[in-house]
UniProtKB/TrEMBL annotation, chain A:
It comes from the Bacteria. It is found in: Membrane. PANTHER family: CELL CYCLE PROTEIN, PEPTIDOGLYCAN GLYCOSYLTRANSFERASE MRDB. It is a multi-pass membrane protein. GO terms for cellular component: cell division site; plasma membrane. The keyword Nucleus does not apply. It comes from [Collinsella] massiliensis. This is Rod shape-determining protein RodA. One of its GO terms (molecular function) is lipid-linked peptidoglycan transporter activity. The chain crosses the membrane at residues 27-49, 61-78, 84-103, 124-145, 165-188, 200-222, 293-319, 331-349, 369-390.
Amino acid sequence: MASSSAGSLKKVNKQMSTAKGGLRSQVHLGVLIAWVGLVTFGTLVMWSASFTNPEVSFPRHLLGIAIGVAVAVVMWNIDFSNLANMSTVLLVVDIIVIFLPYVPGLSYNAMGMTGWIQIPFIHLTFQPVELAKVITVFFMASIGAQYHGKIDSFRDYLKFCGMLAVPFVCIIIQGDLGSSLVVFFSGAVTIMMSGARKEWVLSTIAVIIGLVSLILATDSIIDGIVGDANSLIKSYQMNRLLVFLDPEADTSGAGYNLQQSLIAVGSGGFFGKGIGHATQSSYGFLPESHTDFVFALLCETFGFAGALVLLALFAFLLFSVIRIAIKCESLFFRLVCVGFVGLWMFQIFENIGMCIGLMPITGIPLPFISFGSSSMIVQCIIIGIVESIWRRRQATL
Amino acid sequence: MNAQTLVIIAGLVLLAAVIGSLIFLRGYSGKFTFDTKNGTRPKASEGEGNTSGLAYKGRFTMLTAGVGVMFGAILAKLWSMQMVRGDYYEDLSVQNRTRTVTTAAPRGRILDRNGVELVRNRALLAVTAYSDLVDDPVLVRHLSNVLGMPYAAVRRNIRDNTEGAQAQHTIATDVRRSTIAYIQEHAGEFEGVTVVDRTEREYPYGTLACHVLGYTGTITAEQLEAQDSEERDEGSIVYETGDIVGQAGVEAQYESLLQGVRGEQTVTVDAAGNVTGQVGEVPPRSGTDIRLTLDVNIQRACEEGLAYAISISKQFGYNEAGNGAMLCLDCTNGEILGMASTPTYDPSVFIGGISNDAWSQLNGEESGNPLLNRAIGGQYMSASTIKPLSALAGLEYGVYSSTRTTTCTGYWTGDGEAYGKWCWDHSGHGVMTLEDGIIYSCDPVFYDIGHDFFYDKDNPEGLQEMFRRWGLGSTTGVDLPSEQAGRVPDAAWKKEYFSDYSDEDRTWNPGDMSNIVIGQGDLLVTPLQMACAYMGIANGGKEYTPHVFLSALARDGEGGDSYRYNETGSKERLTAEVDSAYLDLVHSGLKRMIYEESATLAAHFSSLPVTVAGKSGTGEKAGQDPYGWFITYAPYENPKYVVCGVLEQGGFGGSSTVYGVRDVLGQIYNAPDSMSPTDSDRSM
């Protein structure tokens, strides 16, 4: 089989080089335009934030983009179809990556941050969980593709769900609830798109809701037994949830961030306050305005019009990737695209949603916009993978 | 074993569990595969397999719809926040980054009639903090070191709620510039400590005219409540806790003019509360400057004259002398040119809040109640200064004609031998007319008047009626707070006042008449009332309302007036309707009293360039030294000034108070008294 796939790859490359349209056929313009647009917009937001926010290093943001573009080009040139047969390897690598921050010599803990590693000798810090999201998408797609688009057996369905539970639980243990939810949502979309029967999916959702409620309800008891630090739901997470349910309840503690974010978004109006006049973020009322709450900063600076542009770019990106998935002849590639769509859906909805009070607060970056090289590089990797898939959309048989 | 180790172990256990389950699954299916069909190889990289394209199309439609719903939800929420409720959030963001700071408005200055500053303002810096600062003992300790104040005092000031619990509490006022600079340079160490600009009252003449000027203090809870309960005009001042308001004298009387309107500064702040800029300012509007009728020279002459008279009294052995009043008014319009009262107080002790000790000392008996303005609030028996009014009563009611005489033997027995009364001159004055009675203050003349009124069928209380006609027994209406009305006793009053006594003791008797007709007994007057009565005598019966307010200064800064005292209304208080012939008799008698009663007295006044009319009086109070009165007006021909003085326990008016009064006239006419004082005049 290995030789056969290698042969087909050669065939594809030959096809590609002779295909009509040249570059047009090798690069999906929609994704490219959306990507360039998002990165440009993000750069503009960071540039405006860099005047007043000392935590924003504009050169570092540009460096992240440069690395991201370079890595994306590399990804574009790699054929990922072989990963379809490497589920076990993907799972093991995934788990290793997730637990990298615990490897002595790599772990990097500064200012209370966890989940970071520092690559030896070059002192570059990185959040491995961002990479784990991509690996998990491949992992789930590689399993889903084996069912040929229809999961008939309930046992298979359970097995599939169990596979998703592994990276999900690992990321929770590693301590990043937000990322684990991203992986969970992306994986769930993959399972559904793989052909799971509706009644199973619906009953699974019901079970999950029941379980989550049980965990939340018993949280105080669990806290009493093992202590808050070791319990599944930390007290700050509980507070965030309560504040989400009733934003006015506590405007000084956990509710402060949400309240300030709502003010920042709402006070932007239609055209925004303009660069340098975003008082909520530049005077420090809005915390984490360059990372988790970057959407609020964007809304305050560029208003509804700016948010509209951003959402249009995101929508264009997602619909383009769905379009690529439809065009793909390979089920594996199709599910990889679907996994990325799910990943972006959740990250975008959760990040923007928490800024505008639609979702509880979790620390998830907004793709392409938030300050932070790990996220930027990994998002660029995804773009590179998607473009690679587009390039090899017909390279399956 | 820490939490991290636990987590790693948990992770490893989980990993083992996964591998174990994979092995289990493998055992179940024969060999490990992810495939659904036993034995077949994975076909992951292959095409759509056995699923129709239609099924996929449906799933992708669902996914696309899901993405659409997600963006739709975000857009809908954004629309409602930014487009519909944008103004609401804009307000919140403005509230977030702006703070309104009130700036105190300086009070108006108080000037004398010639524009001399009697009260002005001084700018200073104060250190304030909210009361919760007290929870940080380290900072309070640090602050006490920097300010050079005791730790306990700093704590007490921070917790002191008189400025309002939510307001900034003043820790220290008038802090040195260098200390302020230190606090501002180390703002990080003094979080919660604020430096504010204040203005404070300053009294360039110290205690001069303190009773007229009054003092200021923090608005009391009662005053704030009173403000809330009464209806206010548009644009009138709204007081807040901690505001400084006038509490006595002119400061209180003309509070609404003197009080300025607070300014507001809108500043931008960052999240830490640091001020980053100023976006708007409504400047404070300072209070109106007002001019008083006082003349600083005459005021000073009144105070010095009073002090001089007290020193003379003490010299003559009246060691209890010390309290008294002296005032000078313009009898052509009622303007008060000088008003002195002793003992005095320093109005500056009220600045920044008076301590309890100082307050109780000011209100204590031992200190002689220095806050009392004796010129308007001191009630004394008028003594012989009432005799001109008694004479007018006798004439007007036909009780005692101008030609009738009384033979003074020194002892009067008109009410019977058992009720005999001494004249102040026990050797007797001889045959006296009414005018002689005024000149020599001969008591039997007036005993006869009192006796005849008592037995007069038509006007048994004609005497009291005449007193009231000249304004006694009622306030003069002077524009100063806490004026007293005095008392004109009559039968009804006695019955009411002594209601606990037997009917016999409550009955008005001839002795009561004999007392009040010479200004003794239960008659009570204020120095201002007597000055006003003499103003009436000098004016042919007309009394103007005495006042200290002259004008409010216009805001143009050129010294012009925006309006003057009672511009449109009548300045006249009352006109005592008395036959002018009778008034002339009294008028003449008062002049002759000055120049004919005794050579030594006349000598003091003959050095003045004008002719003076006047009357002495000496009130007798059991167990105390006599209360000395002296009231004059001048010039005799065309009266302009009334000068009135009273000394508590200062001895005879003609030998003590007179010297103070003479000095005031000396200041007015620039003719100092060259004669040395004598203790010879013992007329009452």
